[in-house]
Design brief:
Layout (H helix, E strand, L loop, with lengths): L1 H6 L6 E4 L3 H18 L7 H25 L9 H17 L4 H7 L2 H14 L5 H19 L10 E2 L8 H28 L1 H11 L1 H6 L4 H27 L1 E2 L1 H4 L3 H13 L4 H18 L4 H17 L3 H9 L10 E4 L4
Antiparallel strand pairs: 1-4, 2-3
Helix pairs in contact: 2-8, 3-8, 3-11, 3-13, 3-14, 4-5, 4-6, 4-7, 4-11, 6-11, 8-9, 8-11, 13-14, 13-16, 14-15, 14-16
């Protein structure tokens, strides 16, 4: 009797919701900004375009570091290794082999992807600070190898003279399109990944790798894939940035400043959050232009700012803002709501 009575009871249905109103607004604004970025060659000065390209590179390299450290637990101080090898591969393909430089940007990504496999095989047994030091050592090894390669003109560096076949306007069009692709791959790709079923595994791995592994998450495989993705994304940053500069040297391509910039941006903005990366990149971008002329004072200001954030606001600037107003721009939290709710 009880069974028949219970069978007449209608259980409420529910659905999982990840998108929010603020997320939809942010998506529309993001699309508008990408359109504005691509259209810049028709209304912006060359100096403004170069500055925006630099900002895009800061956002992208910081997001790759954020994906690795904030979710994969892979704290690297040697991502400049993949930035340098990709940029040099692009220069070699374009300058030494006559491949169109814009095509070479895509082809050169095979180099960091391939080199990331043995690199991770060498470093994956290390943990914490040992892993970080290991990545820095690998970056230095790559720098020394490139410096002693006559094929890449050694320590003198290379110039991308083949770009002279394009006018300044044509170069600007190509580079802004590449920057839009860069943001879609790094920021958009990370957002898509975190909203997918792998995002749940990444979040669990970030919070507690041991517990995640006990629940069936393949932590080793995920970390390997995140490392490869970080290497390719960082390589794309290097190819685009040095294409804009039209020249590359081992000291600039493999400079540890790139890792420091990424770490600063993520720490200031908020680790594990895409919104934090964007805020941190904007802070660094404008701080560099305001305080940069003051030399060492500029570095002191950035260091003190990082120290204050690390001590009093570990969630970064975005973490502080989220305590006041809960408006996620890249929502990844899954909420169970009734299907009757709109």
């Amino acid at each position: 009797m009880s069974l028949s009575m219970n069978s007449n009871i209608e259980l409420p249905t529910a659905r999982v919701q990840t998108q929010t109103a603020s997320g939809m607004v942010a998506m529309m604004v993001g699309i508008g900004l990408l359109v504005a970025l691509v259209s810049m060659p028709w209304w912006a000065h060359q100096g403004t375009i170069r500055s925006v390209v630099e900002l895009c590179c800061y956002i992208a390299i910081a997001q790759m570091w954020n994906l690795m450290a904030g979710y994969g637990g892979l704290v690297s101080v040697g991502q400049q290794a993949f930035m340098g090898v990709a940029a040099y591969a692009m220069f070699a393909l374009a300058q030494n082999h006559g491949i169109d430089p814009f095509v070479a940007v895509g082809l050169c990504l095979l180099v960091p992807a391939l080199l990331a496999v043995p690199t991770y095989a060498l470093l994956h047994r290390l943990d914490g600070p040992y892993f970080a030091i290991g990545t820095w050592v690998v970056a230095e090894v790559f720098r020394l190898i490139v410096t002693n390669m006559p094929y890449l003109n050694g320590g003198a560096g290379m110039s991308l003279r083949v770009m002279t076949q394009y006018s300044a306007h044509e170069r600007a069009i190509g580079i802004t399109i590449l920057c839009a692709i860069l943001l879609l791959v790094t920021v958009g790709g990370s957002y898509w990944l975190l909203r997918s079923r792998y995002g749940l595994a990444l979040t669990a791995m970030r919070d507690n790798p041991v517990a995640a592994a006990s629940q069936g998450v393949n932590v080793k495989k995920l970390r390997f894939l995140i490392f490869i993705a970080g290497a390719v994304g960082t390589g794309l940053v290097g190819a685009i940035y040095f294409m804009t500069q039209l020249r590359i040297t081992p000291e600039s391509a493999f400079s540890s400043n790139w890792a420091m910039i990424a770490i600063f941006i993520v720490m200031i903005g908020g680790i594990g959050k895409i919104e934090g990366v964007i805020i941190g990149a904007l802070i660094y971008f404008f701080a560099e232009r305001i305080f940069g002329p003051y030399g060492s004072t500029y570095l002191v200001v950035l260091g003190l700012l990082t120290l204050v954030i690390a001590i009093y606001a570990r969630g970064g600037v975005w973490g502080l803002l989220s305590k006041v107003v809960n408006i996620p721009l890249f929502p990844t939290r899954r909420t169970l709501v009734s299907r009757d709710e709109k």
